[in-house]
Design brief:
single chain; alpha/beta; D-Maltodextrin-Binding Protein, domain 2; 2 domains; 3-stranded parallel β-sheet; globular
Length: about 325
């Protein structure tokens, strides 16, 4: 074989080797998940609304993408244990996070070192649901206006329950007090259930609760639902007005769930996850389940998620500053 033939053969061999090596990521993205098991890390213990959302998500992704999608529960440290696990996972699409507003917009202000950067360490696929909250009170007052009047008359005499300093419930109350010119006593609990229990018993006066656990107590009259944090009334609590209806316009309810992956995950894989997640939660059955849980459909897509994450992180930073909350 002459020198030109040898050179041509070498180029062909090199080209074949490059095809086997360099496009491996591209082929993996095209075949994703290719019969492999994908872990969706849930930052809460089994049970409750996050578990139901995780079930809808895993089933929907498996139906649309193939492979096996499973939930892996990793609760703790205000959802940051799950966040760290996914932030430092291999960016191959086989480890995803069902992230939350806490994970991405408050943890960095509540903790000195959450263990990850919400923007630099993740690629965010889409929002999947908004959390609706209801402002619920022990039924001492007939109306929201009467409650505000009582709070103004006796600053710090009324108390509000939350599931911890810097949580969504706490931030919403800080915002509400600023808007109404009131001061109330903060009573933080170790979780939402004991906070709700003491409000039902009248040991605390009011709180922002997620809809599902408060719903039966509002319907029975053990709590009075003053307003829901939604643009329109929820079918879960149709008699409870919106915040706008009681005179609190443009009230931000920072509660949502995402699908996110480690930074560096191939764009083709992220696009598949984004589209399949959007289709899953657009199904009428899924939307009905969200409504029954006191959730609402979220604006889909990675651009909407990034805009909201950035906007609400800035809002929460200001609320933390205003409240004098220092990272622990």
């Amino acid at each position: 074989m002459n020198e030109k033939g040898i050179h041509r053969r070498g180029l062909l061999a090199a080209g074949a080797g490059a095809w086997l090596a360099a496009p491996a990521i591209g082929r993996a993205a095209t075949e994703y998940p290719g019969g492999q098991t994908v872990q969706i890390v849930i930052p809460y213990a089994p049970g409750g609304v996050p578990d139901i959302l995780g079930t809808i998500l895993t089933r929907g992704l498996a139906q649309r993408l193939g492979g096996t999608f499973v939930m892996y529960h990793r609760p703790g440290a205000s959802t940051t244990l799950a966040g760290r696990l996914v932030a430092h996972a291999k960016p191959d699409g086989l480890t995803l996070l069902m992230g939350t507003v806490t994970t991405f917009t408050t943890a960095q202000y509540a903790l000195r070192d959450p263990g990850f950067d919400p923007l630099a360490d993740f690629v965010h696929a889409t929002l999947i649901a908004d959390t609706l909250f209801v402002l619920a009170a022990y039924p001492r007052w007939e109306s929201f206006d009467a409650l505000v009047a009582a709070a103004k008359q006796r600053p710090n005499a009324l108390s509000y329950a939350t599931w911890g300093v810097g949580t969504t419930a706490h931030l919403m109350m800080l915002d509400l007090m600023a808007r109404t010119g009131t001061e109330m006593l903060h009573v933080p609990y170790s979780g939402a259930p004991p906070a709700l229990t003491d409000t039902i018993a009248g040991r605390t006066d009011l709180m922002f609760s997620t809809v599902a656990p408060a719903k039966p107590h509002i319907e029975s009259g053990r709590l009075r639902g003053f307003a829901i944090t939604a643009a329109k009334r929820s079918e879960a609590l149709p008699l409870v007005p919106t915040m706008a209806e009681i005179g609190i316009a443009d009230f931000s309810a920072p509660g949502w769930f995402t699908v996110s992956a480690p930074a560096g995950t191939p764009p083709e894989i992220v696009a598949k996850i984004e589209q399949a997640s959007i289709e899953t939660f657009a199904e009428p059955e899924a939307r009905a389940r969200l409504e029954n849980l006191g959730l609402a459909p979220a604006e889909p897509g990675h651009e909407a998620l990034l805009a909201r994450l950035t906007r609400e992180a800035a809002t929460n930073r200001e609320l933390f500053r205003r409240a004098g909350i220092e990272p622990e």
